[in-house]
Amino acid sequence: MHCHDGRQQLISFATNDYLGLSCEPRVCQAFADTALQQAGSGASPLVAGRSHWQERLETRLAELEGCEAVVLFASGYAANLGTLMALAGSQDAVFCDRENHASLVDGCRASDARFLVYDRQQPERLQRSLARRRRDFDQVFLVTDTVFSMDGSLADLPLLAELARTWQAVLVVDEAHATGVFGAEGHGVCELQGVRQEVAVCLGTLSKAVGCLGGFAAGSQQLSDWLWNSARSQFFSTALPPAVCAAALEALQILQHDTARRQRLQQRASQLRGLLLEGGLVLAGYRGTAAAEASLNPAGSPIVGVLLGDEQSAVQASARLREAGFLIPAIRPPTVAQGTSRLRLSVCSEHTEQQIADAAAAVLKVCGRQTTVTRSQSFGHTAG
């Protein structure tokens, strides 16, 4: 994985192209063949832009997700924003994990529902808040990433599913960083943790492990029908070009059958995480009970956050790593909480063992000391 900044070739640890499919010749060829016939879709999906390629892709994604129907959006951000705005009304409440991606946070905030924040490290507080507040709202939505993008840790979906059953809540999950990465068949954390049938709304993207572009919402036919007529970010946006849909279909075919890519990704991620931990670095992630640690912090998760604490340290470390030949971004507030600035490394199946070893050595040389960080206040009204 190389990128070029005009001066030097860099080994990139900044991409979400986890399976290397954005550069896979078969995917590129599918795009090129279809692009020769039509460049753009010409209209929004609801008007006249929904091509047969989009219909095929929605059908294929529904099969992948094991649901009745899928609605495609122009991006993952648009899917999260439009779906949450369409579902959550003024008499409802949304409980949003404090470390959810900005697109989920923005969707929750942009809806008419009461916006409440919970901390997944304190599930008992979420339980108490639901018990106290549930009767105040017509509907309650529990909204979470399945893989948290700043540290690679996983949500405890069985716990959230149990809370959803207990309090008649709607569980909404975003599998953006999980599709193609987790589960025996690459269906995500819902498959990995055995809760696929308990998730009412599954959001996802085609721009990460699938290597293309677009977002989607998966669920019941009733959900699909509602979003087709209520999700403004979907029907007021031009539909995905046919070539993008064709490329995504080819990528999904490879994703399903080429399990070696997923296995190699997990091996490379485990290698990197192990080397950094052996070197004494503090890695970002969920810190719950010992029993939860292994399942919620899988060694093979491809996102690795090296905590450095202050912004200046992270920026300087990233600059020094660039000089050493590695593109490893510094992540700072407001993307992460104050005092938790970090380097974020995203592993790809196409990284070689030697590249992983070299990157780990460079990070340890630049950041070779154990650091201490503190958590800041959450970004909204805590669900306590």
Strand order of the largest sheet: 3-9-8-7-6-4-5
- As residue ranges, the low-confidence spans are 370-384
* Percent helix: 40-55%
User: Taking Cα atoms only, what radius of gyration do you get, to the nearest Å?
Assistant: 21 Å
Proportion in β-strands: 15-25%
Order of helices and strands: EEHHHEHEHEHEHEHEEHHHHHEHEEEH
Tell me the number of strands.
13
C-alpha end-to-end distance: 44 Å
User: Kindly state the mean pLDDT as a whole number?
Assistant: 91
Structural features, described:
Residues 370-384 have low confidence and may be disordered. With 384 residues, the chain is of the alpha/beta class. It is built from 15 helices and 13 strands. Strand 4, helix 5 (102-110) and strand 5 form a beta-alpha-beta unit. The strands form 3 sheets. It has a 7-stranded mixed sheet with strand order 3-9-8-7-6-4-5, sandwiched between helices. Strands 1-2-11 form a 3-stranded mixed sheet. Helix 1 (25-35) runs antiparallel to helix 11. The chain starts with a strand and ends in a 17-residue tail after the last helix. The radius of gyration is 21 Å and the shape is globular.
